[in-house]
Amino acid sequence: MPPEKGPLACGAEAIGRMASLERILEAARAALSPQDLKGHHLVITAGPTREPLDAVRFISNRSSGKMGYALATVALRRGAQVSLITGPTSLPPPPGAHTVSVETTTQMHQAVLQHTRQASALLMAAAVADFSPYPEEKKIEKTGKLALKLKPTVDILADISKKRKGIFLVGFAAEAGPMVGRAEEKLRAKGLHMVVFNDVLEPGAGFDSETNKVVILDRWGGKVELPLLSKEEVAYEVLDRYKALKT
Ligand code: CTP
Questions:
Q1: What is the mean pLDDT of the chain?
Q2: What is the CATH number of the domain that holds 80?
Q3: Of the candidates 30, 48, 216, 236, which lies 20 to 30 Å from 152 by C-alpha distance?
């Protein structure tokens, strides 16, 4: 492990710090892992997007980014090149990923368009805001009731499906109930190859949880129902399925 950059005992800010234990562990995991995704360039989105309401406020959701970051970490460990396009989260960027931080859905859309030119796959784990307000430049004053007018945001997956032929598209459908049918509908409507369904109302499968319980569906009729797993284990399953279907 090479030394890292940061504040040193002599007072200088330079390369010379011992790598963190987490980085050393991750390098060991990668060294021990089959490099079966070598040659794959995966673009992974994670976290929520934020839609500004005025100078200080925004509309967003509870996504923690954990599923997208787990996918990025496991893909890197298995030898993939990873571009991680992330909304605001409290997670550290996975070492080795090309991480692009965005806030709004429009910014995420632009970043995804830019990074999918040469990509093998796009995995949209981000919880993209579906609606955006008409933002006020100043801070909205409190004058009683407030009705917000919202417009739909661009559907990033549907747009990429039209513009980037040949790229493998994976969507994530978090539904509030056991509605696998809705996920299947999204698979078709957005022209996806795979969709990862989870029911956010199930214990251990909600937003910001450490675990997830998913069903992986694909356009060839495949359906894999998985038990409650850590998000890292789910990431392995999703990437195994991608690899099996892509090659
Ligand atoms: N998605 C996207 N762009 C959007 C909204 C969603 O690319 N503007 C992606 C998500 O990242 C996810 C998939 O589409 O991978 C499904 O997202 P979801 O919110 O479940 O579907 P919607 O089409 O927004 O439908 P609804 O909110 O009505 O369930």
A1: 96
A2: 3.40.50.10300
A3: 216
